[in-house]
# Entry
Amino acid sequence: MTRFLKLPFQLFWKLLTALQTLLFGLIALGLFLALIAAPFSDNASQMPEDGALVLNPSGVLVEEKTAVDPLNFLADDGGPSEVLIQDLVVALEQARDDPRITTLVLNLDNFGGGLMPHLEIVADGIQDFRASGKKVIAASNGYSQSSLLLAAEADEILMNPEYAAFPEGFSAYRTYFSSLLQRFNVTVNLFKVGQYKSAAEPYFQDRMSDEDKRARLAYLNAWWDTYTDRFETARGLPAESLNDTIDNIQTVLESASGNLGQLALNSGWVDQLMSDRERAEYLVGVIGADEEDEQRYRGIGFEDYLALNPTEAETAEHKIAVITAVGSIVDGYADAGSIGSLTLLERIQQARDDDAVKAIVLRVDSGGGSKSASEIIRQAVGPCPSRRHAGCCEHGIGCRLGWLLDFCDGRSHFCASKYHHRLNWYFCPHSNP
# Structure
């Protein structure tokens, strides 16, 4: 009797299991077919035979993208918005010599900016493209300070009159909460050695120290001097004209009737003010209309361009290994976005074990971190028989180090940065922090 009562439930469970298996099987088959059909889809980007390369970076310039945990990726609806400098540089280099690319269009509406040294690298690439004789047009709604520096390398800058292009200068802000800690009777014990150790200042001060101000102004002023010189030279403006406009902003803004777009035009920062429709018509007239949509110009985004024109690794008897390390220096292993001492050592050792590698360039973009991790790295790249270590230090915010190692006798250091943190001091012992 019990067996007959169980029979309907058993049949129902088998049917439910079969339907579940069928459903997930169909979903998996659909995904598989979609992946197979994607390259042949009509929506896939096509390489124009005569058109523009659209440099449309979305995110902040980085030398190495930050690793994203899959769970965090799903929870945050995507990872950090970053764009590799190397991708932009390679796209510009290839397009410069590509006869199918006649124009470079800078669409910088989603550009998140970057550190001054990174901006200069991309600006140099745009400058080289323009030097080939091909036209460069900056066509964005508005321009941030970073995007305006890149746009300055264009033959002409187009902007929507409802937007602005106004550089404000560089700044650095910190939050100080010493009084808050004192209110809750929290005692902070700090041990430090040397000057310009400002990392823990917020715990025991309510304002920036004079030493920290001097240290930050050193690189902020250097960045701003570089920015103004480069921008004024690229735009053909008189020296110090950018600073004069900012210093007299009230008068300049009144002369433009309070319109920031007109201010940018009057100051020579942009060439034309156009609505979206006018800009689209202008670009179609200069570049040519798209075959599928006559209201759009012929062009391809730099990411699609790289995907359709992959670069092949060059085979050579002798190679230079370039190792990029970005982020805080930590002990042990670390994903991309941090510099793990053991992770970096494995990369260096892999390059050393390759007989074809005759030199190693270590590019470090870091504000510092663990002393023990830095010491481990220093020991690994320290004196080595029959090898010469030549350090070439650059700077981002805290530390931007290019370290050259070539396999010869002797050892030498070349330090160009004024703003070294712990890792710089180890690799460049003859420099003054």
In short: The first helix runs from residue 2 to 37.
